[in-house]
Amino acid sequence: MSFVVRPCAPRDLKDIMRLVKEIAVIYNVPLETLRTNVQELEKDGFGPRPRFECFVAEVPPERKSKEGHTLVGYILSSYTYNSWKGKNLYMDNFYVMPEFRAMRIGNSLLNEAAKAAWQQGCSELRMHVFFHNPNNTAFLERRGGENLTVKEGWNLLRFYEDRLRKMADQSQA
């Protein structure tokens, strides 16, 4: 199967949102709760201070999906900082459409993100993986990823918007 992995361009954002929605459906996230849209992605990814980096996987038109799509996967990440290790790359989304899996597309996307991280001086690549999908964890572990929940007992916590707002309101600043 021929495909190309390349940096995301603004023209790809409609397809990125399509894939984001596919992921939401897989994880039973109500689509009406998604805050991100094409305009937000364009502002945050291609504005004066980009907040994320994204690579896409594209197949030639003759290999398009059943629905007619040629953009079949992506990896979206941002740079974060770890007080022990310095700069690292956090992968927020890593997705390949099911009909295009087992074709080395995911491996190529991951390698491209790793290359970008290495070129930016990162010491680590990080991401969270849904525990009900052991295939995703196994895919990353086969490539050298360590499951920190198992190895070190780390938990991932989140503060939702309402709590974030409440904490911000309580700030002395």
UniProtKB/TrEMBL annotation:
Q: Which Gene3D superfamilies match?
A: 3.40.630.30
Write the record's keywords in alphabetical order, separated by commas: Acyltransferase, Transferase
GO MF terms here are: N-acetyltransferase activity
Q: Does the entry feature the keyword Acyltransferase, yes or no? A: yes
Q: Name the domain of life this protein comes from.
A: Eukaryota
The text of the family note is:
Belongs to the acetyltransferase family.
Supply the name of the protein.
Diamine acetyltransferase 1-like
Taxonomy, top ranks, is: Eukaryota, Metazoa, Chordata, Craniata, Vertebrata
